[in-house]
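[recover] target loaded
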């Protein structure tokens, strides 16, 4: 059988290469310094041949982010799971990280960033994601800062981010935001590179157009291969 080919990105850091592998939707794998990080691992992703995690980051309670079924397949003895308190009610051995908190785990520094809806929800007066329930994450390694937005709209805390080298920003309706709003938010904090992810059904050309002339490099990759 032919070996499964995955798209892999490589980011240069002062401590060597940091590899980024899109897995599925909001699921991403990072590899650097002999350590592996899985972000929002999900059963719908293909984890065949991928190494088990030293660190797992979970952003929220929804099933495409918190998937207890996949955890035994991507963890090993000593794996640390970092998650917001709402997730830790289900994933009971998780280390809780709240919005605004920071932890050093292995060679990685993890910061919790608020992720929430400003206006979109299942009914009037309700939001899909309430402030404080979930985390976006800023992940630092080798002098580079990577931001994973989680399911969010273009909230003030995102717009106020500083010194982000690489951003991964969600966009899809009705749960997060459309591509034009995502581009506007990215313009505010100006990462060097941005990858749209969790974008099923979105017009990524609109996102690219919204960042034209901004100085932000837009990298579109396949999260649904």
């Amino acid at each position: 059988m032919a070996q499964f080919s995955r798209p892999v990105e490589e980011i240069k850091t002062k401590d060597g290469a940091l590899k980024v592998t899109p897995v599925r939707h909001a699921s991403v794998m990072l590899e650097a310094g002999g350590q592996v990080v899985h972000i929002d691992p999900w059963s719908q992703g293909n984890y065949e041949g991928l190494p088990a995690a030293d660190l797992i980051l979970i952003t929220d309670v929804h099933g495409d982010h918190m998937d207890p079924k996949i955890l035994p397949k991507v963890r090993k003895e000593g794996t640390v799971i970092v998650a917001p308190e709402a997730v830790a009610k289900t994933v009971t051995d998780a280390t809780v990280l709240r919005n605004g908190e920071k932890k050093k785990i292995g060679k990685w520094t993890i910061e919790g960033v608020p992720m929430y809806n400003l206006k979109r929800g299942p009914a009037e007066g309700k939001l899909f994601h309430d402030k404080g329930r979930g985390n976006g994450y800023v992940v630092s390694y080798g002098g580079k800062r990577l931001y994973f937005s989680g399911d969010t709209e273009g909230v003030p805390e995102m717009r106020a981010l500083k010194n982000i080298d690489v951003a991964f920003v969600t966009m899809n309706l009705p749960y997060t935001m459309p591509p034009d709003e995502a581009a506007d938010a990215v313009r505010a904090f100006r990462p060097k590179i941005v990858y749209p992810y969790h974008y099923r059904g979105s017009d990524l050309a609109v996102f690219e157009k919204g960042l034209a002339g901004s100085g932000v490099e837009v990298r579109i990759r396949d999260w649904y291969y």
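[recover] notes: The chain has a mean pLDDT of 95.
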